[in-house]
Design a protein that fits this description.
- The chain is of the alpha/beta class and 457 residues long.
- It contains 14 helices and 18 strands.
- The protein folds into 2 domains: 252 residues, 3-Layer(aba) Sandwich (Aldehyde Dehydrogenase, Chain A, domain 1); 181 residues, 3-Layer(aba) Sandwich (Aldehyde Dehydrogenase, Chain A, domain 2).
- A 7-stranded mixed β-sheet has the order 12-13-14-11-10-15-16, with helices on both faces.
- Helix 3 crosses helix 4, helix 3 runs antiparallel to helix 6 and helix 9 packs across helix 10.
- GO terms for molecular function: aldehyde dehydrogenase [NAD(P)+] activity; succinate-semialdehyde dehydrogenase (NAD+) activity.
């Protein structure tokens, strides 16, 4: 895939970039190693100062950064600006709390026959980050902020369709004061990832992306015995029970499905509704979809912009066509929008069966799949009948039902009476084929630390 900014709203190529040569990549890895040797000795206070300076720059430049992201992957300007400000918040979160998270953790010295015993968190070194296009800055920042605060240095291999976002992140960190080699963007194709990951100068890796990409990185890292964190796909359930506030659940469901033009791993994708709430929910849900404005993502009135890539739209079309061909009912939408760019109508499909690809595949776009269930056990069974386990939503005011959903839904996170999202203050990650490891909070900063045991007689 060419490294280029292609405006999804028009299909026109805006700017193309040359891939780095092997020699240039080798030079970048040398810079990273040299940078780590000095950077690991900096104080928490100094790192926090640079993180806060990065946040300041992001806030000051938010409008321009948002326009760049909208041009590169088609998200609305409002959501792009919100993402930029969220990145600033992420940098400040680790600036404010990182030192506490990385402080020596006391152990029971007496129990182990020591005068002192504790765990110390130390950086691993050069960490490779392989990131996707759907949240061009936030995906990378939720790795970069904790990794840099912990004293690691980063190498970013971003998706080939968001090169300007990738270069901006390196640039803003440099302008904030981070020394040379602390964070570098490598404009390279996927074919060069394996050689970089196998390079002894690289200590660990993190990947957010597709299941096949995760399998590849995990296999290579396993062969090299290097630590990895993987955040892969999701097919999150959105369960609605009769006791729920149905109008609020339906309104939130619209946002939960079409956020980021439907291109989010933690977007709700499978709407599992109790039969006693089904008709009321579906009427309100469909009305909400009908009110959505699809169009130019730079226009303030637009709710849903284009899909980020032409192939992404084709994949979505094939899922919908397969479902309809096997008996699914289209309540609204169901086809591409007749205009330039890679637009697809917000779509709701009902009567989903196991024979349809959409039953088990992740629909990465504004397409919702509806299921009617008779009871809570059936709802949970459908929710868990997937290879994914990233997030989940359940709507009920019944405390016993809430506890069942929390305990029984197989996922890395469960949101009750609200939409799944990510916060620096909450751990983020999945189980099953949605990956392993955790991002954000103290869990995220500890992922790329050597947790060293210290025992002193």
């Amino acid at each position: 895939m060419a490294i280029a900014t292609i405006n999804p709203a028009t299909g026109q190529t805006v700017r193309e970039f040359d891939s780095l040569t092997e020699a240039q990549v080798d030079e970048a890895l040398d810079r990273a190693v040299r940078g780590f040797a000095d950077y690991r000795t900096t104080s928490f206070e100094q790192r926090a100062t640079w993180l806060r300076a990065t946040a300041d720059l992001l806030e000051a430049e938010a409008d321009d950064v948002a326009a760049m992201m909208t041009e590169e992957m088609g998200k609305t300007l409002a959501s792009a600006k919100a993402e930029t400000l969220k990145c600033a918040k992420g940098f400040r979160y680790y600036a404010d709390h990182g030192a506490e998270m990385l402080a020596d953790e006391p152990a029971d010295a007496e129990a182990v026959g020591a005068s002192r015993a504790y765990m110390r968190y130390q950086p691993l070194g050069v960490v490779l980050a392989v990131m996707p296009w759907n949240f061009p800055l936030w995906q990378a920042v939720r790795f970069a902020a904790p990794a840099l605060m912990a004293g690691n240095v980063g190498i970013l291999k971003h998706a080939s369709n968001v090169p300007q976002s990738a270069l901006y992140l390196e640039d803003v960190l440099r302008r904030a004061g981070f020394p040379e080699g602390c964070f570098q963007t490598l404009l390279i194709g996927s074919s060069m990832v394996e050689s970089i990951l196998r390079d002894p100068r690289v200590a660990a890796a993190t990947l957010t992306g597709s299941e096949p990409a995760g399998r590849s990185v995990a296999a290579i890292a396993g062969d090299e015995v290097k630590h990895t964190v993987l955040e892969l796909g999701g097919s999150d359930p959105y369960i609605v029970m009769p006791s729920a506030d149905i109008p609020r659940a339906a309104k939130t469901a619209v946002t939960a499905r079409v956020q980021n033009n439907g291109q989010s791993c933690i977007a709700a994708k499978r709407f599992i509704v109790h039969t006693d709430a089904y008709d009321e929910f579906v009427d309100a849900f469909t009305a909400g979809f009908r009110s959505l404005v699809v169009g130019d993502p730079t226009e303030e009135a637009t709710d849903v912009g284009p899909l980020a890539t032409e192939q992404g739209r084709t994949d979505l079309e094939e899922l919908v066509d397969d479902a309809v061909g096997k008996g699914a009912k289209v309540l609204i939408g169901g086809s591409r929008v007749d205009r330039p760019g890679w637009f697809y109508e917000p779509t709701i499909l009902a009567d989903i069966t196991e024979e349809m690809e959409i039953y088990s595949a992740e629909a990465f776009g504004p397409v919702a799949a509806l299921y009617r269930v008779e009871n809570i056990d059936d709802a949970i069974a459908i929710a868990n009948d997937t290879t994914f386990g990233l997030g989940g939503n359940a709507w009920t005011t019944d405390a016993a039902e809430q506890e069942q959903f929390i305990d029984r839904i197989e996922s890395g996170q469960v949101f009750i009476n609200g939409m799944t999202t990510s916060y620096p203050e909450l751990g983020f990650g999945g189980i099953k084929r949605s990956g392993y490891g955790r991002e954000l909070t103290s869990h995220g900063i500890h992922e790329f630390c050597n947790i060293k045991t210290v025992w002193i007689a």
